[in-house]
Amino acid sequence: YEPSGPRPIEKLSKDVINQIAAAEIIHRPSNAIKELIENSLDAGSTSIKLTIKDGGLKLIQIADNGHGISREDLPLLCTRYATSKLKAFEDLQSLRTYGFRGEALASVSYCSHVEVITKTKNDGCGWKAHYADGELVSPKPGVPPDPRPAAANDGTIISAEDLFYNMPLRKRAFKSASDEYNRILDVVQKYAVHNPHAAWVCKKAGSSLPDISTPAGSTSKANISLLYTASLAADLLEVPITVLQPQYLGASIRGWVSNANTNWARRGGWLFFINNRLVDSTKIKKAIDSLYTSYLPKGAAPWVYLSLDIDPAKVDVNVHPTKSDVHFLNEDEMVVAIVGAVQTALSNANTSRTFTVQT
Ligand code: ADP
Ligand code: MG
User: Fold this and answer.
1) Which ipTM value was assigned to this complex?
2) Which of 2, 132, 300, 309 has its CA 20 to 30 A from that of 335?
3) Ligand 1: which of 25, 35, 39, 77 to mutate, most ligand atoms within 8 Å of CB?
């Protein structure tokens, strides 16, 4: 054909499609961590332990004590669009799990070497399996393909090695393993504050001293004290569970926010969960920041943890694979109502401080 003429249209192969999707869903190690943590929580885990090498680029390992995966499900585990959480599109309206697309493990297997060891309560022994590009593979040539029996505790251990080994450009973009590790700690910390019922550990491979360690059955406030600073926790104001008005929003909010004495100068002071999912909501963050400008000195920043519970029928989680941005009905009213709840906490605190000074 002519160089200036049209080129023939061809269908992309399944592997190319899946590799493109993987690159979109897993931008960096911390995206994979978030997906893996959500899977562990979906599995009902009360203990989640992460081991990280080279900021997650060499190794991400997550060990949980959740319900495990049945042997029969292992062949489909890393297949794209294979999930145990969603059947019909309508189910999205009543979704209570983090996952639903069945894309996370597939994506991880398209950009790293995945090993899974899992055991359910009813299984006598555990099972081990290796995956590449969505499929079960043999661990080495000449060995029959997985899964194979393995010693294991109840729960699941997923290891992803050599992230982006097949995407050299992406891999080269990561200059600093310690910066990636800090992003991972940021995500784990936030989930630990929001899920204090579970014990959390995050450490670098080979290190005996974990960077994050919280006990099971803790509280959000105790975990904030452990993971952020004790002085921040001491100064926090509670936003008690508040049903947002008007009633038809079908939403409630709760959380902990810093007071007028705190300046959270570091990164990572914005923890916002919608139906237990960590999301960035720029709109709500801006509104809260601007509320604080009347309480804080110029240039100072708040620390804010808010958990919004909302009727799943009113949120659209089906927006982007990374699911960090979700949309909901009556968004503007919701922003006003959320700011109102935080303002109440802040102004109650101001009143009580004046009172203390006077006595
Ligand atoms: P999704 O979470 O959207 O279903 P994933 O690719 O993250 O998709 O996971 C695929 C399936 O693998 C899940 O639906 C679940 O059945 C199973 N799974 C993944 N991780 C775990 C885990 N840690 N414990 C138990 N089951 C898991
Ligand atoms: Mg998932």
Assistant:
1) 0.98
2) 300
3) 39
